[in-house]
Backbone:
């Protein structure tokens, strides 16, 4: 099993491994979890394809996608996913996303995992700006972004193709200086 990469008080982020399929299916096959997402609910084949893709991605250099597993530090149990993507241009810009298994919602997991990615993006990769988007109806995700200190910038029209048509997105961002000002 891959070792922990970034650690917070309760959760850690680690690379995915081939043995994670059952744990991935526990969130990725849940229609309640994927309701506001452009993918899923995943079949076992789709989840296996996701795993193969992110395991391969982790070995690419330069690395532009950090799609990692969120695990509980106490037990090592995989309970969700977190992602930091880097824009291809010179803009020192990234974007984040997160998913948490339903029985673990409202315990601060997504906020802690996303905070670890912001710290890595700004302090280690030297990014200047990190963005995130969410469905306008996704109250929980919006709340996570606000708790991270991300600022609402506006509404992107028809941003994503969903199962039932185009979806608007709310755009949030945080800048390097804003993130530094929030560090203890
Ligand atoms: C969005 C999601 C990742 C949040 O995960 P989480 O671990 O429960 O988030 P946290 O516990 O860190 O924080 C959630 C915040 O939203 C609030 N919240 C959660 N559900 C809510 C709801 N239905 N209505 C209002 N607020 C809600 C929580 O109370 C908490 O805020 P608080 O600390 O001020 O009380 C989780 O709901 C999820 O996996 N959803 C499906 C996937 C998804 O939408 N991902 C985001 C894509 S943009």
Residues:
């Amino acid at each position: 099993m891959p070792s922990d990469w970034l650690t917070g008080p309760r959760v850690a982020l680690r690379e995915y491994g081939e043995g994670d399929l059952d744990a991935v299916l526990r969130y990725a096959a849940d229609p309640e979890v994927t309701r506001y997402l452009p993918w899923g609910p995943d079949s076992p084949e789709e989840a296996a394809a996701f795993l193969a893709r992110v395991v391969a991605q982790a070995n690419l250099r330069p690395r532009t996608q950090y799609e990692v597993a969120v695990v509980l530090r106490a037990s090592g149990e995989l309970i969700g996913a977190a992602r930091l993507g880097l824009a291809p241009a010179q803009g020192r810009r990234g974007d984040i996303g997160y998913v948490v298994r339903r029985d673990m919602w409202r315990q601060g997991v997504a906020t802690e995992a996303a905070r670890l990615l912001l710290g890595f993006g700004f302090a280690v990769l030297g990014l200047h700006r990190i963005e995130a988007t969410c469905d306008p109806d996704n109250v929980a995700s919006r709340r996570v972004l606000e708790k991270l200190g991300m600022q609402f910038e506006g509404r992107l029209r028809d941003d994503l193709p969903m199962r039932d048509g185009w979806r608007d997105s709310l755009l949030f961002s945080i800048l390097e200086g804003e993130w530094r000002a929030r560090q203890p």
